[in-house]
Design brief:
The structure holds 2 protein chains of 2 kinds. Chain A has 12 helices and no strands. Chain A has one domain. Chain B is an alpha+beta fold. The chains are: A mainly alpha, B alpha+beta. The complex binds protoporphyrin IX containing FE. The site of protoporphyrin IX containing FE has 24 residues of chain A, from helix 3, helix 4, helix 6 and helix 9.
């Protein structure tokens, strides 16, 4: 597949390491602002929210790779693993902020929250799903599992995305725009997979069959 | 209930002279606020220390002014500070009507003039789980209500916020977070309780717009959203009035909305809270107190009531 000239990244190959390095900038910057007490009146909440938001962003970027290839011909497949792992790392940092800073390791309150509060339950569900996906995001695991089983396992990322988007929607008091936009983006990215014909028609070329299992 | 009525006593004789001066200052402050217009809304406003004030450290003024829920100006905490300067609070009229002997439209200055302003340093607990300590300036709501002479049939007080979409960006556009006007209510005995005040200032100044200028309710034992802002109407009524958050989600927000660590919000715990401006990212939560620490004063209002049911 030829790279689309409109997308500069596709022509010049950005090293994967650069994606990781850039990916951690928001975490380091936010933590720095927190230590300098420059995160506003509720710094712990701000830190927690920022980490959660970046986790969701990386998760959605990860889900955008396949539609971008299919509909726009932009091939960023080689960065998908990095984006998925960044989503997991940010979720882990987000969870750590929740446990250590927000609740000062009050395990009883934390346990009650996870069991009783749907917004925490859904966040935790998203995180638990991401654990095995992160653990098998390496070439050795793909070889061990075999491409098909690996792909089937990694389809769980859709469930994680739905849980994460619901998690965001369930926190808010009214209906502000941001969680609705993220939920809409999640729904759109999943719909493109549920109805691949739409994408194919958009490009008016058939999708390569052989690759479907690995990229959907 | 006027105690002294003889018209031949000058107001300056009834009122302690210092309080009289403070009123003059307040009115001058309002004038100054008007002269500067938009951005420089706050003007100095002195008041004697009132009862019920806490000695806890006050939340930094900058945080009190920057972290607000005032959905008329947008849904984010920073929106009111950014947008509220558009609100013109002068002239301001408050209608007091309903079951009162003397319904009237008051100019704000006239409503405030007879009052001895006090500073009340109160805890404020938001339903979202954060709290502040705010030095309000105001006067007991009871004093204002008494002037309108409530009738015996009045059981509740209903409040209403201004609707002015040209100056309140949250009141127009596609995504409106609540139905307008914002309305709130209290039982009459809650409204007459000496803790309940109408505030016209904070931190020694007239109220900044984002904090509910020029006139807002402060009921320190209830969640913050009961403290309706930018009030234009106060009505005495016979039946329990509608309240905005209760209409938006009756399962989550009750009419009473008393601070209660034992009754959780359906989606989050109310057992603890975070004090704003306290200790950066390593600060700990603190336990939330029954009636926000004002149980001694107000628990008797709810004797025999099931507070899980009447939340
Ligand atoms: C993949 C996993 C997760 C994702 C993508 C995620 C994402 C998010 C997002 C986007 C927000 C809202 C940020 C904002 O308001 O701007 C959020 C808030 C929150 N998340 Fe998560 N989350 C995840 C897992 C978890 C877990 C495991 C927990 C705890 C067990 C958790 C607890 C919270 C809490 C308590 C908040 C609210 C913070 C506050 O507003 O005070 N999340 N999360």
């Amino acid at each position: 597949m030829r790279a689309a000239p409109v997308f500069p990244l596709a022509g010049w190959r950005v090293p994967k390491l650069a994606v990781y390095v850039a990916g951690f900038v928001p975490a380091i910057w936010t933590f720095y602002l927190g230590v300098m007490d420059r995160l506003g009146p509720e710094p712990i909440k701000a830190l927690e929210q920022e980490l959660g938001l970046w986790s969701l962003r990386f998760l959605l970027l990860c889900l955008a790779i396949t539609p971008l290839r299919r509909a726009a011909g932009v091939d960023l497949l080689r960065y998908r693993r990095a984006l998925g792992l960044l989503a997991f790392y940010y979720a882990a940092l987000h969870l750590s902020a929740y446990v250590a800073l927000d609740h000062s390791f009050d395990w009883i309150a934390i346990g009650r929250d996870i069991l009783k509060r749907p917004y925490v339950t859904s966040g935790m569900a998203a995180f638990v799903i991401l654990v095995p996906l992160a653990a098998t995001s390496n070439n050795a695991a793909i070889r061990r599992l075999g491409g098909k089983a690996w792909a089937r396992l990694h389809r769980l990322v859709y469930v994680a995305a739905v849980a994460a988007a619901a998690h965001f929607l369930l926190i808010v008091k009214s209906w502000p725009a941001e969680p609705l936009l993220y939920a809409a983006a999640t729904a759109a990215l999943l719909a493109m997979r549920a109805f691949p014909a739409v994408l194919r028609r958009a490009r008016s070329i058939p999708a390569p069959r052989r690759r479907r299992a690995l990229t959907s | 209930m006027l105690i002294r009525h003889s018209p031949d006593i000058a107001p300056s004789e009834i009122t302690p002279y210092s309080a009289y001066l403070r009123r003059r200052e307040f009115l001058a402050g309002f004038g100054a606020a008007m002269a500067f217009g938009g951005a420089a809304q706050a003007a100095p406003l002195a008041a004697a220390r009132g009862p019920f004030s806490t000695d806890e450290p006050r939340t930094p003024r900058a945080d009190v002014l920057a972290y607000n829920n005032f959905y008329e100006f947008g849904g984010r905490k920073s929106d009111p500070a950014e947008n509220a300067h558009r609100l013109a609070t002068k002239p301001w009229t408050v209608r007091i009507d309903g079951l009162v002997a003397k319904p009237a439209d008051y100019r704000l200055e006239d409503l405030i003039k007879p009052l001895a302003l006090e500073e009340r340093v109160y805890r404020m607990r938001c339903v979202e789980g954060w709290s502040m300590v705010i030095p309000w300036i105001g006067a007991p709501l009871s004093e204002i209500l008494k002037r309108a002479e409530p009738l015996g049939s009045a059981k509740y007080v209903a409040f209403e916020t201004l609707v002015r979409p040209e100056e309140m960006p949250g009141q127009k556009g596609l995504l409106q977070l609540l139905p307008w006007p914002y309305v709130e209510g209290l039982r009459l005995d809650e409204a007459l309780h000496p803790l309940t005040i109408l505030a016209v200032g904070l931190y020694g100044e007239t109220l900044p717009n984002q904090n509910g200028a020029p006139l807002r309710l402060v009921v320190p034992w209830k969640y913050g959203f009961k403290g309706i802002k930018s009030i234009v109407r106060v009505s005495l009524v016979e039946t329990q009035p509608k309240t905005s958050w209760n209409m938006q989600n009756p399962r989550e927000y009750g009419f009473y909305s008393n601070v209660n660590p034992n009754v959780d919000h359906p989606r989050w715990s109310q057992a603890t809270e975070r004090r704003i401006g306290e200790g950066g990212i390593f600060a700990k939560r603190r336990p939330t107190l029954m009636f926000n620490g004002y149980a001694e004063q107000v628990a008797s209002l709810y004797g025999g009531m099931d507070l899980e049911r009447y939340f």
